[in-house]
Amino acid sequence: MAYKVMGITAGRKNGNSEILLKEALTACEEAGAEVTMINLRDFHLVDCTGCTACTKAMSQGKYIGCTLDGKDDKKKIMDAMLNQDAVIFSVPTYDLMPASVYLTFAHRSLSCETSFLETIGAIEHRDRVAGLISVGGSTRAWQSMALEGLQATMFTTDMKVVDMVLATRVPAPAQCLLDDQLMARARALGEHIMQAVATPAAERRWLGEEDMGWCPNCHSNALVLGEKQWDGLHEKDVQGHRLIKSSLSQSDFTGKEQTK
Ligand SMILES: Cc1cc2nc3c(=O)[nH]c(=O)nc-3n(C[C@H](O)[C@H](O)[C@H](O)COP(=O)(O)O)c2cc1C
Question: Considering the entire predicted model, what is its pTM?
Answer without folding.
Answer: 0.88
